[in-house]
Amino acid sequence: MTDLWQSAMDHGVAVARTAGKVVREALRDDRKVMTKSSSVDLVTQTDQQVEQLIIQSVKEKFPTHRFIGEESVAAGEPCVLTDEPTWIIDPIDGTTNFVHSFPFVAISIGFSVKKQMEFGVVYSCLEDKMYTARRGRGAFCNGEPLQVSQQQDIGQSIIATEFGSNRDPEVVDKIFTSLRSVLSIPVHGVRGAGTAAINMCLVASGCVEAYYEIGMHVWDLAAGSLIISEAGGVVLDVEGGPADLMSRRILAANNRTIADRLVEEIVSFSPVRDDAPPPVEAPSKQ
Ligand code: LIP
Fold first, then answer.
1. pTM tops 0.90
2. Which domains does the chain have, with CATH numbers?
3. d(Cα 146, Cα 122) in Å, to the nearest integer?
4. Which residue of 127, 218, 253, 277 has the fewest CB atoms within a 10 Å radius of its CB?
């Protein structure tokens, strides 16, 4: 089995590189923008094209493997993680960045077996940085080993977070209450790259101490979560318990001390889970 997962990972890296080329080329043209759950939840034809490219390429080599892909789920495919080998794909993490040519865009590919991440690949395709991790074998960027920051003092830290695409006033209030508390610790700074996957790779690289967010999805997190833990960090729920990648809540940090301090400041809430059954539509009255 070991060699099989290595060849799957090699394929993941190769297809992420090909996908990155497609994304870079698409940036030269006009992008037709569509919306999904809200007017600020964007998708383009390139997201859909890249997801199909990745899935077709993997299917040819690993015909029995399963997929959870952002755009396939948006099109109605189930978002269920089984024990089977499963590729968890975000074809463009940072779609809003892509639409605006804001220069942080990633292809994120996680691979899970028996509900455990075996490898993660995040290709920051405009920086040409290939982040990789395999369970038990460390994390790397362009082949160089990654190590989280050794900082224990939150007051000397940079924290990454995002605002997401939910504009419900109650949710926005909670996000801003957390942000105000974190800033007021005070921390050295708060940053956000506009992509969960790259934020996680920044934690793994040691230049950001932690990243938290409520509202992103399993495809944003799957690969990055392994890259952080293989770089020596911790991946938790925002209340400090074990991470649940389907819960749409994440707190990833360089160490438990920084994570525990952030738990005190984050106002938690629970979006609809990624694996929740689709809402049943009420029968129309005749
Ligand atoms: C996005 C994330 C971003 C987060 C958004 C969204 P997309 O992913 O990476 O950091 O704030 O909620 O999930 O839609 O660009 O793949």
1. yes
2. 2-145 (3.30.540.10), 154-263 (3.40.190.80)
3. 13
4. 277
